[in-house]
Amino acid sequence: MKKKGKRPVGKVLMVFTIAFFYLPILYMIVFSFNEGRSLTGFTGFSLRWYKRMLESRTMMEALYTTFSVALIATFVSTVVGTVSAIGLSKSRKVIRSIMEQVDNLPMMNPEIVTAIGFMLLFITFRVDKGYLTMLLAHIAFCIPYVILSVMPKIRSLDPNIADAAMDLGATPLQAMTKVIIPQIMPGIVAGALIAFTMSVDDFIISYFAAGGGVKNLSMVVYTMSKRINPSINAASTLMVVIITAVLILVNVIPILAAKRKAKDEMKKRRIFVPAAAVLAAAAAALVLFLRPGGSGKARPFEGQTLHFYTWGEYTGENIIGNFEEETGAKVVMETFDSNEQMYIKVANGESFDILVPSDYMIQRLIQEGYLQKLDRSALSGLDNLTDSVKNLPYDPENEYSVPYFWGTVGIVYDRTKVDMEDLEREGFNIFLDEKYRGDIYLYDSERDSFMMALKALGYSMNTEDEKEIQEAYDWLVRCVQTMDPEIVTDEIIDNMAQGRKALGLIYSGDATYVMSENENMGYYLPQTGTNLWSDAMVIPANAENPELAHAFINYACEYDGAYDNSSFVGYTSANEEVMEVLSGEGGDFEGISAYLPRTDNDKDEVFEYNENTRKLISNLWSRVKIAASNAK
Q1: Number of neighbouring beta carbons within 10 Å of residue 208
Q2: Regarding beta strands 572-573 and 486-488, do their DSSP bridges make them parallel or antiparallel, or are they unpaired?
Q3: Within the chain, which residue ranges are assigned CATH 3.40.190.10?
């Protein structure tokens, strides 16, 4: 008798397996049509993110780079890999065995090791990182996959087939191209498809091998994922559509060809070639369509390049493109995740024309001689800035810096869960109130977390007193051991917009977004004071184009540039008129208290740089996170 029950269980398991793999993709596709910016709450159907993706120069350049690199790397690695595999098949057994192990090594190695190896290689030989270095890296890591795909087909051939062809009058080249290659074509095309997929998919090696503002799609998506930008859903959906179309071509064309008459038998044997040709043609057409264009109109800085190094997702949708259109210059924008990451590049001599560091880091850069003084006669936008961001302690006369964004660090809270009396009575000490145990977020920032603890204890956040810093450490350890907090970074933005916890520590610009998405959310600044932060534009001492840098600073300070920046990013503009318009009646952030920083509390402070204190706090924060892990 047949056993019962196995087939239904197998079918159910298969369904769950398919759902596990494909539901996240379906979820992403659905949210690419979301009207709102939320990545978790669907608010209505819209094509706005596809429109924004197509209008984004950054994303279009990334798509162009992705497909152009993938096509070239696929072609070169397929040719080199195929010829290498054929050559290995004719080599001595010992040599073939050694080379096969060498070929397997890059595939077995962790990608991060390969990526760092490429980076060190380019640095050692002083090769400027950019498009070419990314392409060379992609070719190098694609070749082993082609060889691995082609070798089984070569082994299945009669070893005497090439000799037979040459006995019949073929040259060695003809024997390879007219006899061997047609026989192994399925393996070649399979290797090419794998190489193309690996190139399009790669992030880690591209991240370490690229430079000069060159980014592929995976790098752009990584940058966008730091903050709320649903355009990543649209871009990812586009990639799914392209890949699905390729799979349909590869599978449907053989089925159609199988129905042809016997006289087309030769075409049947080469059925993969048309599929590959169609794929290459489609990808090439897409590359040409996406390739960024330019204007022939003569402009003040025509042909010049501005190297701009800023935070990820810290510019408006149109400011870069509009500045390029107005001046004729090209802006190469690179992004960093932290002030310390930016500092390492600057200290190692990498050249940029504009940086956007935070207050304490500007102070450090000034002290160490990495910045040049601004030419005040070339700046026309300083009068547009609010007095609250001028002449701050890190640069008292604004000799080196022009404010970009500013704000505070406070408590975002759910009005339906948090009692306002608790906030007013406890301030930052609410993070020790066991009423909210398991319902809070801490921000994974040593500076801001210690600021919170020091302010809760009534101390200055710039204290150099090791006893006070130790007390702050004890306060944070108590918090993580008794309150079961979740320590997060930018994921707090969407999580609080969805009301997943009662409260958390957050930057005012992120709180602005949260409050605009969820009317139940509020933003509170304790009376004991907080961090009044400022990010500003500066020109490095080794900048290659300071004149163009001054022009960009002026543009970013003027109304149009400042409005585009602030309305899109959500952080408070240093331009006073923009700030008033966006927060006023009918403005994007009307009624959102987080958008307007507090300026009337004398206990609010600006961070000051102190190397000894920084090292101490950094070490203690690592111990706090260890305590948090042990408490779970």
Answers
A1: 22
A2: unpaired
A3: 305-401+543-583, 406-533+591-631
Cross-strand bridge partners of residue 309 = 334, 355
Q: In a 10 Å sphere around its CB, with 0-12 CB exposed, 13-18 middle and 19+ buried, how is residue 196 labelled?
A: buried
**Partner residues linked to 561 by β-bridges:** none
CA distance 280 to 402: 48
Given the candidates 1.10.3720.10, 3.90.180.10, 3.40.50.150, 3.20.20.70, the CATH classification of the domain at 52-290 is 1.10.3720.10
First to last CA, the chain: 52
Q: Which residue has the tokens 């162009």?
A: 64
Distance of CA 468 to the CA centre of its chain: 37
- d(C-alpha 376, C-alpha 274), whole Å: 63
H or E element at residue 354 = strand 354-355
Q: What are phi and psi of 336, to 5 degrees?
A: -125, 160
Tell me the C-alpha distance between 617 and 623, whole Å: 10
CATH architecture assigned to 406-533+591-631? 3-Layer(aba) Sandwich (3.40)
Structure-block tokens of residue 325: 């259109």
For 36, residues 6+ apart whose C-beta sits below 8 A from its C-beta are 42, 43, 44, 517
Which tens digit of pLDDT belongs to each residue from 571-628?
A: 999 999 999 999 999 999 999 999 999 999 999 999 999 999 999 999 999 999 999 9
Residues of the chain within CATH 1.10.3720.10 domain(s) are 52-290
Does the predicted model carry a pTM greater than 0.85? no
What type of residue sits at position 340?
Answer: E
Neighbours of 243 (CB within 10 A): 14
Q: Are the beta carbons of 411 and 423 closer than 8 angstroms?
A: yes
**Can you list the alpha helix ranges (DSSP code H) found in 258-350?**
265-269, 272-290, 319-327, 339-347
Per CATH, the number for 305-401+543-583 is 3.40.190.10
d(CA 358, CA 407) in angstroms, rounded, equals 11
Interval 416-459: pLDDT, tens:
999 999 999 999 999 999 999 999 999 999 999 999 999 999 99
What is the per-residue pLDDT for 227? Answer: 63
Indicate the SS3 state at residue 158: coil
Beta-carbon count within 10 A of 486 CB:
17
User: How far, in Å, are 11, 17, 66, 465, 551 from residue 8 at the CA level?
Assistant: 5, 14, 43, 69, 69
Nearest to 131 by CA among 215, 221, 218, 217: 215
Distance CA 303, CA 281 (A): 32
Query: Contact, 345 vs 510, CB < 8 A?
Result: no
Q: Which residue, chain included where needed, has tokens 């006023």?
A: 584
Q: CB neighbours of 48 closer than 8 A, spacing ≥ 6? A: 35
Q: How far is it, in rounded angstroms, from Cα 556 to Cα 548? A: 12
What is the tens place of the pLDDT at every residue in 552-564? 999 999 999 999 9
